[in-house]
Design a protein that fits this description.
It comes from Solilutibacter silvestris. The chain is an alpha+beta fold and 210 residues long. It folds into 2 domains: 115 residues, 2-Layer Sandwich (wza like fold), CATH 3.30.1950; 84 residues, Outer membrane lipoprotein wza domain like (Outer membrane lipoprotein wza fold like, Roll), CATH 3.10.560.10. 29% of the residues lie in helices and 23% in strands. The chain has 6 helices and 10 strands. The strands form 3 sheets. It has a 5-stranded mixed β-sheet with strand order 7-6-10-8-9. Strands 2-1-5 form a 3-stranded antiparallel β-sheet. Helix 1 crosses helix 2. The chain is elongated and about 70 Å long. The N and C termini lie far apart (55 Å). The relative contact order is 0.13.
Length: 210
């Protein structure tokens, strides 16, 4: 079993136990190991993670939704709530506070049902004047050419030699914007700017100025 899968199982099991205790259902379980408790408390919800919100004795307020790219979820009665970059406990507290205007002493539980943010962050995106703007899973050894071909190539309106690779800073790796001579790569076999991609890279192909 992979490390990510083990973490996912641990987090979901612990959040289930925590929800039972919070909701007041009377379910009883032994105290979890300290290290597992810390893992639950430390996990920060990410974009595309799926969360389940339940409000005790108010099932109509319950939802199970993925976290949107803006880091928010939409909850009945109160609207958008920030979830990205926060723990499930923090999100539950925020929802509880906002629901007090509508529900007497709301008991809220937020449970992670799917951990998908790591996949979202490890994708490569191709935007602009390509035939099919895409977000594709990053693979070791993937290059600019691989990603552009996955997007169906450039359109007739593209200015391929003004393509840019946008990279955010990572540990031991600076970020920045890098010019890609995509026309040279595609049509002349010049691979000098056919950079090897890292997770999270964005390739932007502009349209030519008419």
């Amino acid at each position: 079993m992979s490390r990510m899968l083990r973490l996912a199982c641990t987090v979901m099991c612990m959040m289930f136990l925590s929800a039972c205790a919070t909701s007041g259902t009377g379910a009883r379980a032994d105290a979890p190991p300290a290290d597992a408790t810390q893992a639950v408390k430390a996990y920060l919800i990410g974009v595309d993670d799926v969360v389940q919100v339940s409000v005790w004795r108010n099932p109509e307020l319950g939802i199970t939704v993925p976290v949107r790219p803006d880091g928010k979820i939409s909850v009945p009665l109160i609207g958008d709530v920030a979830a990205g970059g926060r723990t499930p406990e923090q999100v539950a507290d925020d929802i509880k506070q906002k629901l007090t205007a509508y529900v007497r002493d709301p008991q809220v539980a937020v449970i992670l049902t799917e951990l998908r943010s790591h996949e979202y962050l490890s994708r490569v995106r191709v935007t602009g004047a390509v035939r099919n703007p895409v977000s594709v899973p990053w693979r070791q050894g993937m290059t600019v050419l691989d990603a552009v071909l996955a997007a169906g190539g450039v359109t007739e309106f593209a200015a391929p030699d003004r393509t840019e690779l946008h990279r955010r800073p990572k540990e031991n790796m600076p970020g920045g914007n890098y010019r890609v001579r995509l026309d040279q790569v595609l049509n002349k076999g010049d691979l000098g700017t056919n950079y090897t991609l890292t997770s999270g890279d964005v390739i932007s192909v502009p349209e030519r100025v008419l």
